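Quarterly update from the structural biology core.
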Amino acid sequence: MLFAFMIVFVMLPSFASQDLFIPKWFLVVYQYFKDEQISAKEFESAITYLQKVGVMRLSTDSQDESITNFLITHSIIEQNSAGHSEFSNCISHWYITGYFTPAESDYAGKVITVNVDGASYQFREDFVTEIKTEGWGKTLSGKYLGWFDESFHLSDFPLDATGNNLESHMIAVDPSIIPQNSRVMIPTLLSPWNEVVFLASDIGTSIIGKHIDVYTGEGKDAHEETYRITGHENIVCLEVK
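Predicted structure, tokenized:
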């Protein structure tokens, strides 16, 4: 019989409600499915059964996508086996977005005058507009123009909310949900972001609750990445210390 396995309740730890519970013994069933020793229908029935009796909960409650949900959730285990076993504190249903640093050289709008710390500078208008959304932008001179506290500022580097240099492994979080300077992995993101260990070093007024904003870098390619990684129903794993 498909369910004739020893049931050992081994749960992954969690840091909030709606946790992901994956008994390690169930990987035996999963291996049978991978080896085609059982059918997809039998495997789905096993998952559905385990969810009904409360042994395991996956990334969504939709039984119609139970195999897909298990495969997504199993990526956490695969990450752990790849040397990230400390990231086992996982929860589902996160909204992920991206932000980037625009480069003025990519913009062609009209030139306008901007007051920066009491002095007048000229920049492309569409570039300035983008900065008001993204926070910082690289000017033609190589300096970085930032928008915060309802005014513009210049810096040698783009900065996060605490004054640290922005780097592509940093994320903005709600500190009431994820403490600042926590290390985080998001295994449901597209490659290569699913293997990145992020640092929760930034915050934002629009980053509330189960929402993470990933800094993707500078320029056009980084802008494209913000669209590529944006999505709901992500799994987030916090480092267990």
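Confidence is low (pLDDT under 50) at residues 1-20, 59-64.
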